[in-house]
Structures are given as structure tokens and as C-alpha cells.
Amino acid sequence: MHKENYFQAINPSTNQLLGGEFKIANINEIDNAVKKATAAFDIYRKKSTHSIADFLDCVADEILSLGDALLERCHLETALPLARLQGERGRTINQLKLFASVVREGSWIDARIDTAIPDRSPIPKPDIRHMLIPLGPVAVFGASNFPLAFSVAGGDTASVLAAGCTVVVKGHPAHPGTSEMVASAFYKAIEKCDMPEGTFQLVQGNTNAVGEHLVKHSGIKAVGFTGSFGGGKALFDLANARPEPIPVFAEMGSTNPVFILPGALEGKTEDIAAGLAGSITLGVGQFCTNPGLSFVQKSEYTNQFYETLSEKINAISTGSMLTGGIKKMYDQGIQNTLTKEGVEDLAIGKSSTEPNSVAARIFRTTIENFSKSPELAEENFGPSSIFVDTQTKGQILEAANNLEGHITATVFGTDADLMNYKGLFDILEKKVGRIVVNGYPTGVEVCHSMVHGGPYPATTASQSTSVGTNAIKRFARPICYQNYSDILLPAALKNDNPLSIWRLLNGELSKNKN
Amino acid sequence: MHKENYFQAINPSTNQLLGGEFKIANINEIDNAVKKATAAFDIYRKKSTHSIADFLDCVADEILSLGDALLERCHLETALPLARLQGERGRTINQLKLFASVVREGSWIDARIDTAIPDRSPIPKPDIRHMLIPLGPVAVFGASNFPLAFSVAGGDTASVLAAGCTVVVKGHPAHPGTSEMVASAFYKAIEKCDMPEGTFQLVQGNTNAVGEHLVKHSGIKAVGFTGSFGGGKALFDLANARPEPIPVFAEMGSTNPVFILPGALEGKTEDIAAGLAGSITLGVGQFCTNPGLSFVQKSEYTNQFYETLSEKINAISTGSMLTGGIKKMYDQGIQNTLTKEGVEDLAIGKSSTEPNSVAARIFRTTIENFSKSPELAEENFGPSSIFVDTQTKGQILEAANNLEGHITATVFGTDADLMNYKGLFDILEKKVGRIVVNGYPTGVEVCHSMVHGGPYPATTASQSTSVGTNAIKRFARPICYQNYSDILLPAALKNDNPLSIWRLLNGELSKNKN
What we know:
- Chains A, B: InterPro entries: Ald_DH/histidinol_DH (IPR016161), Ald_DH_C (IPR016163), Ald_DH_N (IPR016162), Aldehyde_DH_dom (IPR015590), Aldehyde_DH_Superfamily (IPR050740), ALDH_KGSADH (IPR044151).
- Chains A, B: It holds the Pfam family Aldedh.
- Two copies of one chain form a homodimer.
- By secondary structure, the first copy, chain A, is of the alpha/beta class.
- Chain A is built from 15 helices and 23 strands.
- Chain A folds into two domains: 235 residues, Aldehyde Dehydrogenase, Chain A, domain 1, CATH 3.40.605.10; 180 residues, 3-Layer(aba) Sandwich (Aldehyde Dehydrogenase, Chain A, domain 2), CATH 3.40.309.
- The longest helix of chain A is centred in the N-terminal third of the chain and has 24 residues.
- Strand 20 of chain A pairs parallel with strand 21 of chain B.
């Protein structure tokens, strides 16, 4: 029997409760957390870029210091294999270090200087200088599907802290023990690096009320979220209904459409079938970039492709999903798909006897039947995917035109195909944040060029990315200083460029002194 | 008697109808305009950067070609003096040319290239390239107070077209003839530069329905607005309630608080009084950056300052406001101020006998009385301003802390004052988009460093500016291309950098070829 206002984690492989009880934050505790984050913000935002970079590096080191105990607890809470979690920990740590390097280098703040022209006619030109400054305390929601890389110490938290904001993380209730361990790494780093106590805080809870209180709190100035459309949209609406609306950077998933052009399969049936089967089933299909919908342009290799793909899927074992709720939704999605007219049940993979284990499923239909059932275009989170046969280029272009916003789109084709379908790329540009050619959408590279985002309903903020170094800009806003003396200016904008950063000096990028 | 579904302009200096009848766009006409803008977008966005730059330059030339007839009509519709309108036309033209230069230079699109590492372990690194692309057709609302520089060919329209978006402008009903003339310049430039017909369109109307239909249309992908809080907030709410929410960049005015620190007035009473009187009354006080609220830290020069300021205000003549409605609101605001406890009616300027002419008004009160009447902190659009006497640094800091979001804040002080009040700057950074030291907030410089924006309720989009070259970024979003062959890449991202733009190549800014 557990304590009132506490909750426990559930092992999705066994449906058994796991040890450890976690306090469901009440409205007073949330209020206190935001007040601490607000007080800390005034101190943290004034820390030097090097102090903030060192702090992020220190958090990374402290997470590593948690050792295998972190991976083991995480495995129990998520059913994700230890090897995957080890890789995800590496990604989490590298991400923190990448943001540290961005902060240390310093040019991300978009320093701009327009010097005065006192004798300009008819009116003098004043000295004006521009940079980005942090927004304030940010609420970050941990995601279930990446319990390390998109959760407590994930890309949102890393970019929030890198931008100079403080953070209150709402841990995902599916892995509260993992969240608490990762939070402990932050608390140690805060102490070691002499950062204010409220720089990072974790609140937990298995009710929507916790997140709602947090987003409605006047002290919170932005929201980072990765999860379902329902969850993200609810936070977006709450944030816009506040007396002071705030930006919500919600990444809400996607079907990640794939287009297989006529020449793509020649000599590559085996490769593409294997690659897609892997991409569909990776992490039990619980990736934001999981390819859930493919349009296959008819060719002489189509049947061979489906045969090979079916063999691959039949042979793949997938384990437990992250939670019982997710499994239930997945099963329901499969049932819905099967009720649709003209949908062929192409292949079923292997599953284990674990209670929340599911099998991969692929389906096949024609573009005509697909068009009749718009629900077939909706994401079913998990290792299922639907393949739609098209006969003409016009059908491919129309299918692309009918897409909503997605995170990615993928196109397979020969060089000739790609040139012949230039119009497809023109359409996809308007629909997604990332286009992949002859590759797979899963495996999101954390780098300077990454865009993990896209038009609504993939996100609530198509003008941003939640992965890669540009994610930092979500949590900053521009300010300009007019007619400041050098002593009053922040280091980034002082005449002698003490931070040695790139600046737009009277319209020219340079690292020069002014 | 005018035709049904048409409206006429009113001369605010005479309250007489002006010649010319303007169609109130109905829902079908708006639908057609958005459909044309959508069709044009697919062509316009693929134009070369040089074609777009040439087009913007051509629009500027065509506006100039309208000659004095434009200024004369504008003067009749707005009661703004011809000299002011001539200056504003210059600003409008320079703004178009500045955006042309930004597009021609090309680096604004934030090109980023991370090259592949095929042999990276455990998984290969793909080639990923990033740039900004235009959002789609944009709805722009002309503002009443800058009938040229913030209206049909204003900063919003210029930055929308520079970003590669097409635009449907809702003309402000206070100057429909001016709007139509400026629109004709666009139509000529479209023809001369061989741009698609729907690149720019003007719709007119004197009802809210016109703007509402436009913002609700699924083809519109973003909104630019300058005007009242009520108008901007209504569009923001409409846009968020759409099936596909879209960003609204609404600049909704501000009180632009001023802080006069204890040493500021020594030897400068005359200068500052004259400067503030000018800034308060410029354009009949109808500037977004009009200083409506000042905190005056007690010094031995305080009384002399108020005396001098009163003399200046008493001597200044202001003319008609832009519309009868604006005049009525202004008068109401003055009456509200006078009903508040402890508000001294400091000075009244001169007005003409024209029906919508108003006099400048300044008021004085104590911080104690100011705190009792929160309405005193609200903007009263027009040439009125309230001065609040403070006694202590604590009162100044508290007043700053109590501010809502504003476009600007201004601080007057000696070097010693500025250092002594460092805490004031720390607070103001969180409240405004631009901080001016020993200067005046009116006269917004159009340059690379300008931020004309600020936290809500000054705008609905604190992460952007509506003036200056950075305004272009409001109408673009990032996309990335993974594993593209060089031939498939847009020019900005091709290996040999044919546009010679700055790019972030594996994390290093350069103009190098890859």
C-alpha cells in the first residue's frame, strides 16, 4: 500500500510496481519551485558563458558518475534494452557537452552593432547594439520514449540552461526513478559549480494537474514538450489562455511519410526492405521519427519488395512498450486499421510473452482505399506501418499535397527519379522539417544543421527545432541597447569584443573590435 | 450617397468625406486573394535572391514615382504634415532597399552544413544541411499611425516579401486612398519584374470582418500587425483557435517608461525638458514609442525641470489626430487620468480649431498615488504623459519591477547614476525590447541591431522584432536536407557556395566551399 499523494513506477515487462515512492507535487510545491527558479534566474543569467558551459559539462560528468545503476533503473522502468540505454546516455552527455561548446564559443547570441553617425542629416544615427537574452524560467516536460535524451537532462533542459534560463522539469510518470537519479546529478553539479539552488528543479506527478499548474504559473516564461498531440495541444491552449501568453515548443509526433519512387527498388529491394523494417521496429517503434506511412510507386520490383519486407518483419522480435497505456493505444490503432476497407494485413512480427509486449505490424492498401479512410494517415505510435500502392506520379504528388505537417519525409529513388520528381520535393518542403534522401528518418543527428520540428500538427512552433544546437534559440529573445557607454554594455557587445565572438558590425560579420 | 459595400475616407482635419470609394472585401474576395497568394507563393519562393531584391528595389522606385500626389492624398487622409510624410516616404523606400540588400547578400538564411562521416562508429554520420525557407502567404495589417512606413509598403510587407513569402495586406480604413496608390506601385513592379500576379494584394474594408476572414483562412500562414492591444490580441486569439494555429507578430503599443535618475538634470534641465516635450508631442503623440510615463527621482533640479517642461508643452501646437475615434479615446483617457487621486494637471499645449485637433497634456503625481491607481500606467495613445515623483532608489526599482512588457525603456543619468542604478537595467532587460540611455525612444532606427518589440503585452511575439533587418526572420522557418546530392540542393547549400554567403560549416562560420 503506498502513501497518499505519492506514486510508484511500474515495470512494463511485468506490470509489477517498482520500489521507490515519488511525491506528486501539489500546487504549493509547484509555486515554490517556480519562485525558486525565478530567484535563481536573476543570478544564473548573469553567470559568465564559461561558468555556464562548465556547469553543463559538470552535469554530463555527474550523470556518467551515476554509473550502471542509472541504466538498470531505467531499464526496469521502460523495458528498453540496456545497450540502447547506454547509447542514449552517451547521446545525452554529448548533447550537454555540445551545448556547453556552443555557449563557450558564444556567437549564438547574434551580437549586432550599428555604430553612431552623430553628424548624419536630417537626424543623427545613434549607437545601437543587439543580442539575445534568456527568456526566464522554463517548464520542460520529460518524454516517455527517450527516458534520458528527451527527458530530465534531455535536449530541452540542455538548451534551456545553455540559453541562460532556469528550468523546472516535470518528470514523465513512466520513469520517475530515472528522473530522480538524473535530477541528483544536476543538484550535485549545481553545488560543485556554485550555481543558485533553483537553477534546475524536478517536480513529479502522475496527474495532468501537475503540468497544468506549472504552465499556468505566471513565473514560467516558456514551455518545452515532447509527447503526444493531445498533451502538447492542451499545453499550447493553456499557455495561450494565460493573462500573459507564453511560447510553447511542443513536438507532438508525426507519421514521417516515405516515398519510394519507381527506380528505387532496382538492385536495392533487400537493402531498403531491411532498412525500413529496422526503422519501423527500432525501440519498439516508439520514435517520433518512426516511418508509419509509405507510398510505393509501382515498379517491377514492388511485389518482391513486399515479400522481402514481410519476411524481415516476420523475423523481428519486439519487446514491451513503455507503458500499459501506450500498448493499449497501439492495439486499438491496429484494430482500427484492420476495419478499414481494402487494407491487407501484410506481416506480423514476433513478440514475447511479457504483458506489454507487442508485435510489429505492416499493412498494405491502394491509394484509392487510402483516400477513402483519412484515419489511415494518422500516427499509430509503435512498430506498425502502412504501405500505399500508387500508380502514377500525379498520385504521388497528390498524396504529398494532402499531407499535414510532419517532422520528416523520406524519399527513395535513383538520381533520375529524384530529378523527375523535383515537384515532390517542392511540396514536401512545405510539409516537414527534415527531408531524407535514400536514408531512414530514425536516428536524429545532434548537430548544428538538424531540424527536429516541422509545421503543425507535428509541432506548435514550426520556426524552431528541438534537437541540435539551434534549439537554444527557442529560449532567448532579442534586446537592443541604444546609446550605452562601453562600461554599461554586456561583454558580448563591448567595443573590444572581449568574448572574441562573431558580430554583425555595421552589417558585416566579423570578430573585429569596433 | 455612397455605394453599398463601399466606404470613403474621412479628412480628420475637417470631418468631411474625401473623394474615392473603396470596396469592402467580402468573404469570397478574400478567399480569392488568398488562393492567388497561395498559387503565387509556389512561383515567388523559387525566384532567385537577386530577382527578389530587384523587385523590392523596383517597388521602392515605383512608390517614389507616385510623386507628390501620394503625399497629398496621405496628408488629406491622416492630417499628418507633408514634411513628415515626405520623411516617412523616404524611410519606407530606404526600408525596402535595405531588405533588398539583405536578400541580395543572402546570409540571413542561416545556412548550415554538417558533412558526412561515413565511417563513424557506432553509426555513420549523414550529410545534413540547414537553411530558412519562407512560411507561405502572410496577412499584413496596415497601421494608422504610419500610413507609409508601417502600412501597405511598410516594414511588415517588406520583410514578408524579402523572406520569399507572398502577402495579402489589409489596408487601414483611415487611409484607403493612400493604400490604393501604394498598392498600384506594387502592381507595376510585379509586372515590370515578372513576378506572379498574387505576390502582393491589397484588400480593404472598414469592418473587423475583413481582417477576421483573412486571419482565419487556411491559406494564410502568419500574420503581421501593428496597432492597438485590443486589435492585436483579437487576431492572436483567432489565429490560435484555427485548426492550424499560425504565428501572429502583433506589435500592440506601449507606455515606454522613462527613468530620470538623480544626477540627470544637473546642467541638462533645459535639454531634457525640450527633448521630452518633443518626443511626447511628435506626430501628435501617435507613435508606438511615445514616452507616456516617467519616473523622476527627486533632486534639487526637479522643480526647475517641471517648470521648463511645462513651458515647453504650453508652447507646442499639435494638430488633428488620425481619426475621430482616436481623438475620442484620447479625450476619454485624459478625463480618466484627471479623476485619479492626487494627479496634478501640469500643462496643456495649444491645439487648432480643427475638429480632431487635440492639445498635449502632462500630469504629475507621487509614486504613492501612482501605486493606488494602476490605470495610470496604461497607454493613452496621443500627446499625453504622466510624471511620477520618486524619492528613493527602492521606489525606482519597485516601479520598474511592477512594469508590464513595453517596447522601450529610457534612462537619463550621469555616468555615476548609471553605475549606481545597475539593478534598474537588470530589471528593465526583462521588461522591454530596447533600452535607451540619455536619448529619446521615438525615432526608431531601421538597422541591423534594432529591436522593435518586447514582452507581452507590448507584442504577442517577444522573440522577434518588427523593425530592422532581423524582422525578415519572422516569416521563415528552418528546414534540413539529409543525404542530398549536390544537384538536388538549393543554391545556398551547394558545395561550392555559389551565392558566396556565410555558412556554418561543421560548426565554423565561413564563406568557404565545402
